[in-house]
Design a protein that fits this description.
It comes from Parvularcula bermudensis (strain ATCC BAA-594 / HTCC2503 / KCTC 12087). The chain contains 23 helices and 5 strands. By secondary structure, it is α/β, with parallel strands linked by helices.
Length: 511
């Protein structure tokens, strides 16, 4: 009853000034998330630190990702300095912008109420709430994806002979989406599928706007393609390597893991509702198949393709995030049509409660230990303290050597204001992270190095040195990783380099 009263009061405000009301609501939540970034007691995660590292040098591409996230970080840190807040500042803004696009799209397709629900669901997806606290490539991708969906619907709704501006906007959104993450490929794939199964989608077949859309997208994306060609297809190759099809191509446990993770990405009740809706769609006579099928074509390809990828090898939970903007529109359509609006309210309540707890844990990390979230935030915690300890331990050495990407990313970030160069060793004989290219370790006779390793693997690589184990560096995060307390960093002194010695790993079982 209370929730109904709240919704009715909001509905009255929306009926009086729908656009203004939603702008205020989205703006208020975005501003709150924006300000909270300055309160969180967390550091950058290794991916964020890597994106910041890229942002210091403008390029049309980088080792493992297209350039958009580095460009955004570079622009904001140029204005506000190299701080955690500045690196993350655009994340809640872009998430709020995506919510606005989905509000507009839902309103055009199904009316005001669906537009409101689409924005609410989007802004309160668990994965999106998490995304507002950090900055990942999914954030700009989903901003441009949502904008592309809005412009595509604008094109479908345009009067005959119109739609040129929709075509321009569509092309820009698709092109910029590809510059954010190559998962944007699911958008034209979904559009093509929609053209086959949905009469509504075929309303977008207009020669002039399509020329503008495809031409604009191609022009925007072309510099990144050229960068890849000039740099040995680095980003494209890394993306293909992520699929990891070199091992056993039947991994049902990985598929089940990915499938289960989606209940956490979208929320348990919403993802269950999506599954039920997809399975039951052919049997429900009251559906509006043209528009429902149109949206489904932007939901199912990422989910189905990544589910198959997880069976063949592995898949992270966020690899199918492109499915969820359109799902934010279709889910309230189904729930309201089937008189199951309580699913929406239950999800909003549950997600809000989880978001409040998670926010409290980021503001006061000991809360995470109390409520069992230590593992969830271990990658963004304690690096400032540990980096200071390592800096002191590095005194007296000629250089610092690491051989693991995450450690390199964190130390480059944490030591950004001190003169302590870091070199990164390629211990497996193939450069497979950005730091091995940018900061390669070239040993010099007569110099002493501090080696920092999170694991014991491939110690044989350092066999041309005299290796002296030192006391490890440890920060207690009340968590574990690979069976050892987190975070433990093993330290070694390297000295007396002998360049003429035979390959020390040639007969070592650790090779």
């Amino acid at each position: 009853m209370v929730m109904d009263a709240i919704f009715q009061s909001l509905e009255k405000a929306f009926d009086a000034a729908p656009h203004k009301t939603m702008l205020i609501a989205i703006g208020a939540l975005t501003a709150t998330r924006f300000l909270l970034l300055g309160v969180y007691q967390t550091g950058l995660n290794p991916d964020e630190a890597q994106y910041w590292f890229w942002s210091r040098d403008f390029a049309f591409g980088y080792y493992s990702k297209p350039p958009m996230i580095a460009w955004v970080i570079g622009a904001i840190t140029a204005l506000f300095g190299d701080t955690v807040w500045a690196v993350r500042a655009m994340s809640p803004v872009l998430i709020g912008g995506a919510g606005y696009s989905l509000f507009v799209t839902g309103r055009w397709l199904y009316g005001d109420k669906i537009g409101v629900w689409a924005a609410v669901i989007w802004l309160l997806y668990p994965a999106v709430m998490l995304g507002a606290t950090i900055f990942t490539t999914d954030v700009p991708l989903l901003f441009f994806w949502s904008a592309a969906l809005m412009f595509l619907v604008m094109l479908a709704e345009a009067a005959p002979g119109r739609g040129r501006w929709a075509g321009v906007g569509l092309g820009a959104a698709i092109g910029l989406g590809f510059l954010s993450k190559y998962a944007m490929v699911y958008f034209p794939l979904g559009w093509g599928l929609a053209l086959m199964v949905s009469p509504y989608a075929r309303k977008t077949l207009r020669a002039g706007p399509l020329v503008l859309a495809f031409g604009g997208a191609g022009l925007i994306f072309a510099p990144n393609l050229w960068w890849n060609v000039e740099n040995g297809l680095q980003t494209l190759s890394h993306t293909a390597d992520n699929a990891d099809w070199s091992g056993t191509l039947f991994n049902p446990e990985e598929m089940l893991q990915f499938f289960g993770d989606q209940f956490g990405v979208a929320g348990p009740f919403l993802f269950a509702a999506l599954l039920i809706g997809v399975v039951g769609m052919p049997f429900r006579s009251r559906l509006e198949p043209a528009r429902d099928r149109f949206l489904l074509c932007f939901i199912l390809p990422p989910l189905v393709i990544i589910l198959a990828q997880s069976l063949l090898s592995r898949a992270h939970a966020n690899w199918a995030m492109a499915a969820y903007p359109a799902a934010a529109i279709l889910l309230p359509v189904w729930m309201i049509r089937w008189r199951r609006a309580w699913v929406l309210w239950l999800s909003v309540t549950l997600h809000s409660a989880v978001g409040i707890i998670f926010t409290a844990a980021l503001i006061d990390p000991p809360i995470a230990d109390t409520v069992g979230l230590s593992n969830a935030i271990k990658r963004v915690r304690g690096w400032d303290v540990q980096a200071e300890d390592l800096l002191q331990r590095a005194e007296g050495f000629d250089g610092v050597v690491v051989d693991e990407r995450e450690v390199a990313a964190h130390l480059v970030w944490e030591w950004r204001r001190v003169d302590r160069p870091i070199a990164v060793a390629d211990i497996n004989g193939r450069r497979d992270n950005t730091y091995e290219f940018a900061l390669p370790f070239v040993p010099e006779p007569g110099k002493r190095y501090l080696l920092i390793k999170p694991w014991q693997e491939r110690l044989c690589w350092y066999g041309r040195f005299d290796v002296t184990p030192l006391a490890p560096s440890f920060v207690d995060l009340h968590a574990t990783r690979r069976g050892q307390p987190e975070r433990t960093l093993n330290l070694y002194a390297l000295s007396a380099y002998r360049s003429d010695d035979p390959d020390p790993c040639a007969t070592d079982g650790d090779r």
